[in-house]
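anyone seen this seq b4? input:
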Amino acid sequence: MSAATETAIGTSAPTPVTEVVAAVLLRETVAGTEFLLAQRPADKVYAGYWEFPGGKIEAGESARAALRRELQEELGIDIVDPCPWLAREFCYPHATVRLKFFRVTAWHGTLAPIEHSAFSWQRIGDAASVTPILPANGPILRALELPPLYALTHAASAGCAHELARLQQALANGLRLLQVRDKTLPADERRDFAAAVLRLAGDYPATRVLINDDEALARAVSAHGVHLSAKSLWQCTARPALPWVGASCHSAADLTRAAELAVDFVVLGPLLPTASHPGAPGIGWQRFAELIERSPLPVYALGGLHASLLATAQRHGAHGVAMLRGWG
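predicted toks r here
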């Protein structure tokens, strides 16, 4: 189902392209969110390797229909409302495989390894306890570590003290990914505010804090990464050497550039009218879904959104929602 190596951007790929679907089955437990890996049987290439279950799309078959059929055949379950997610291309020595991943959180029936040697639930954020895992699945495992909500600070509107209080409550309620934005603050004030945000986040070890468009500040306050503006995305000649890198995108070209730099995730918008741009209609859900259909990167929808729209965003292919005002 999966291939051994990823196709380099700009290189010639073998033809024909084999279209494949893969399922990231997710379940909630008291220990955290878990995902399912299945082991390839002895009679298939890469026997014994672990992968996300799925298979080839047959002629005339939609991706969703193929996913439902494959999971019935492989695991004996009927899936409910799969959400489109990432798309990646990988090369076998003889062909290119284009995979479309779907997230699946509901199904009917009892899981059984009908066409696999075994299956295993793994907790997101932990090192996989099963090996070997197909190398092609590495980016998918990393993407799973990203939470569905991404908060952007807005201290300039209500003041740093108010924003820190809002953030403290949001962290207590489970927020785990945030960006220190506030580019209009004086440099010293922004640095102090960023340092205070990192201190609050330190009480929640799984939280990641990114600094907007300032790699030097990110390093100075020991942030987890940097978030590039669309302008900086095009000015960078290489991915910043930080653990986590996000980027703002507004077009198909921006999305392609972000993939070339191998950032970890992007935000795309504005999706809906916003308080800062009330007259602008936004790109809307249909165009959003079209733009990210083949994105290899997790995409957060941004612009006029609230956490209540998370399910809508994910049905349209988003990893989650990014919010400036709606997170606290």
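The first helix runs from residue 63 to 75. Confidence is low (pLDDT under 50) at residues 1-14. kinda curious what u guys think
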